[in-house]
Amino acid sequence: MISAEQALQLVLDAAQPRPPARVSLAESLGRVLGEDVASDVDSPPHDKSLVDGYAVSAGAFGGRAENRLVELAVIAQIAAGEMPVGKVARSTAVRVMTGAPIPEGADAVVMVEQAEWQDDPAGPLGVVRFPQGIQVTAGQNIMRRGASLRRGQVVLDCGISILPAQIGLLAEVGRADVAVVPPPQVAVLPTGDELVDVGFVPGPGKIRNSNGPMLISLARQAGAVVRDLGVGRDDYPQLAALVHQGLHADILITAGGVSAGVRDLVPQVLRKAGVAQVFHKVRLKPGKPLWFGVRRAGVEDQGEAASTLVFGLPGNPVSSFVCFHLFVAPAIARLAGHPRPTAMRVMGRLSDPFQQGADRATYHPAWMEHGDPHAVRLIPWRGSADLRALVDANALAVFPAENRSYQPGDPVECLLLPAGQNSIWSDQAVRRTL
Ligand code: AMP
Ligand code: MG
Q1: Looking at the 3D structure of the chain, how many domains does it have?
Q2: Ligand 1 in contact with 194 (CB < 6 A)?
Q3: CATH assignment of the domain containing 366
């Protein structure tokens, strides 16, 4: 049986990023940029005022020792979006608004709050007086043309994630559309004769299908476009038909039916459908029965993805949750072009004792707190069917396969669950700590 690390490597080796496609700027949020983006403008496009004030020649204010009242004739006014008229001399000033171009002859802007304007026929727009001893230095309150970025300069590199700041910058450099790696399509197929839909009361021996809705939302949260295939039964022809539909997607996730039970049909149905097994079973707790394979589509498979990664997740909800975060989320991230597709791991210190065995690595629901060090509380957990424990978790504490008694205070690595109300970075997590 392979380790979780070996299994992850095999998954990532099989996952190739999708080719980039052009989308509108508004649709690019959360995608990975598929091209280098250069600016088509200087920013700012001209020397511009950073404040509302008076554009002046610093020389008009003399040196530091100067101790006199300076009075200048205001010859013009420029708002953002207007071009300068007139030239500033030592005896004159131009009123400028934030963002306005700096007129010729001016090399500083004095904030309007530091000046006193008077309606006076000495200047066409009155005169402005500055207090004694005011310091005016060349360049103050002016942003030079091209200081932020220059025309032709690459401002965003291929492979970065597009977040709101990147969208703002793309807009600034004129990119109404942009090449991005498209999100992968993920088909979700929970299986089991015992499953009833959420809208029904389970009869004798039945349980509700909790995995289906959870896996659909996990895949969406990971950035995929999801296709819900409904529930597969432990029935060969029905399962085969649904699997066939799922192979149109980039990733097919099944849940249940991969263990050693007589009705665990998923591996044989997948193999029959042309999915080549890469591994079955991982030294992992929970999640040992995980099955993974790849189907490469032939020329006759019109409309199907070039290849489909197939994850046969175990049926128990915590097992499938852990396997999703360890293997499926990285595959989705890799297909979506993310250069670092695996979840963030952070070291903390255990608050509780824990007994670990040598046969399998354990991923235990945990609550990691802010702090130095991060305290890690183990959530009381009754194993792979105990979904309740996950609701209180913001991390999975990782215990490698070895016989070891952990004591409070021992260092432990945690895999952080994605942002949300339980994220270690959420307000709620910080408040719980304080
Ligand atoms: P299996 O891997 O099919 O043997 O399922 C393992 C356990 O997970 C069984 O107790 C199933 O009833 C349970 N299970 C399987 N699929 C689901 C599901 N979609 N939702 C909730 N529990 C499930
Ligand atoms: Mg089953």
Answers
A1: 4
A2: yes
A3: 2.40.340.10
